[in-house]
Amino acid sequence: MKVMIFVCGEGLGHTSRCISIGKEMISSGHEVYFAAYGYSMDFIERKDFIAHKIPPEITLIGKAGFLNVKKSILATFKNWEYMPSRWGLIKLRKLLKEIKPDVVISDSYFMGILSARLHTIPCYIIVNQSDMEEFFKGKSLSSKILAEIVKLFCTGMFKVADGVIIPDYPLPHTVCRKNLEFKENIQKKVFFSGPLISKTFEETTAKELKRPHVLCTIGGFGHRKPIFRNVIEAASMDNSINYTLLSGPSVDPSDFDTIPDNVHIHEFIEDQFPYMKASDVIIAPGGHSTMMEALSFAVPMITIPDKNHSEQQNNAFIIEKDGLGKKLDYSASPEDLLKNIRILIDDERYRNKLIEMRELAVKLNGPVAVRMIVEEHY
Q: Is 202 exposed, middle or buried, given 0-12, 13-18 or 19+ CB atoms closer than 10 A?
């Protein structure tokens, strides 16, 4: 069976879970073809897969911890304005005619579903949020109009897809449950696969790190730099706790006057799972895929979601509500951070709850569950 996997490029979480599906499909003897753009495409190619370039669909722009709705709307409109002449559905049509896939799996990339349906190819969409219009809600008339357009478009795509895959735990444990709302005729298509992570706990050898250890992935974007600084300051207050910080391309470690001995900064780590397995706490934004990885590795989280990013805010709320970690915001001081890090390290209730979530992830085996659903249709 030939499987075409379309990947939304707005966040590497989409890419990571698509790679987990691709690996499972390949290991079962299927042919897999990826289609992506931006740094998602680069990441796929670094994992030694071939990726075909496709046009971006939604562009998100943020600054100072906020999702900038107005600039996101303008950038998205600009992409759509020029898309028909550059790439658009014509490009996807050529790609599907060239590959001739038996099934299409599209992770939050709606044009992939539309193109597959136009070619009568069975298709599945992966989402951890059904109300995509929330990204574009604002006070202006143009914001409201675009939000309604996006809502109608998403509802249509859910309707034409053969299945809607939620890469999360089934209810009542679903972390993204506040971001899900489907009409009754769509609900029968919805399938909770369990976490889709590219490397399991059992497959991972823990990095040799001094414990207790905190892995901080909050870096990577300039507007998160104040949190990055506060984590470093929190580390300086207690040298018994060790830290690995990912700075990302927008944060230069040389900008900081003093780095404590218990802090190690990396711009990027190709494989974060050995670090995750060796950590006692993870500090991260409210991205869904990172949460699924942390839960699958039984590591409690401190989540610091971006402002105005309703999806991340909702995810972080559930993490705290379900006793899986703590939710903080951009006003969190170094003292706040250290206090919550100590709670998550010392309180056995968090550890016990997370072991349950890890065991459930093993039982669900998300990539295998997705493969079986697709094979049943084929």
A: exposed
Q: Percent of the chain beyond pLDDT 70?
A: 84
Q: Which CATH superfamily is domain 2-161 in?
A: Glycogen Phosphorylase B; (3.40.50.2000)
pLDDT tens for 176-185 read: 999 998 988 8
> How many Å apart are CA 19 and CA 177, to the nearest integer?
24
Structure tokens at 228: 């990055």
Write down the pTM of the prediction. Answer: 0.88
Q: Distance (Å, rounded) from C-alpha 212 to C-alpha 278?
A: 9
The residue ranking higher by pLDDT, 8 or 360, is 360
User: β-strands 66-67, 62-63: how paired?
Assistant: antiparallel
| pLDDT confidence of residue 65 | 44
Among 250, 226, 181, residue whose Cα is nearest residue 66: 226
Alpha-carbon span 284 to 316, nearest angstrom: 10
> How would residue 86 be classed by pLDDT, with cut points 50, 70 and 90?
very low
Pick from 355, 354, 345: nearest CA to 213: 345
Could you report the per-residue pLDDT of 199-217, keeping only the tens digit for each?
Answer: 999 999 999 999 999 999 9
Question: Residue 288 — pLDDT band, cuts 50, 70, 90?
Answer: very high
* Single-letter amino acid, residue 269: I
At CA 155, angle to CA 152 and CA 158, rounded to 5? 150
Average per-residue pLDDT in the chain? Answer: 87
Strand ranges (E), the chain: 2-7, 31-36, 51-53, 62-63, 66-67, 103-107, 123-126, 163-166, 190-192, 213-216, 242-246, 263-266, 281-284, 301-303, 325-327
Asked, as a colleague might, if the bond just before 172 is cis with ω within 30 of 0, I would say yes
Task: Name which CATH class applies to 213-361.
Answer: alpha beta
Residues forming CATH 3.40.50.2000 domain(s) in the chain: 2-161, 213-361
Residue listed under structure tokens 């700075």:
247
